[in-house]
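Hi everyone, sorry if this is the wrong subforum. Our group has a chain we'd like a structural model of before ordering constructs, and none of us has done structure prediction before. Sequence below.
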Amino acid sequence: MKIESNLFNFLAPFFAAVGIVYGFMTDWKEMVGVTCIFLTMGLVLMVGFYLRKLSKSIDPRPQDDPEGEIAQAAGEYGFFSPWSWWPIVLAGAAAVAFMGLALGWWIFGLGAVLGVIALVGWVFEYSRGIHAH
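Answer:
Right subforum, don't worry. Here is the predicted structure as tokens:
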């Protein structure tokens, strides 16, 4: 986890420098870009801080060991539905919803309704029929 937290924490000075350079290049008249760059710096710092705190509260992972073997990370990573069509339906609904932001709100509403249906279908996929637990 320290590598991930360092990755985010080392990006913060980069965004600070880019924000200052951007401010000077626009004569500090275009404040939206400067604000967004500094907010990105704050977001990067927050994620880096969270990962640093998390790395102190959990045991070291096999990925954190420089002498570790790939086989040490073997094991179960979770259960994934092998023949599920719901992720594809949900991705299509998200595409329709984002297209609706550009073309019209009624298309966004259609995508949102499709997204809710797809999400409910995906969550309750194994709660009915032959696959019920």
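For your construct planning: The longest helix spans residues 31-57. Helices lie at 2-25, 31-57, 86-103, 105-123.
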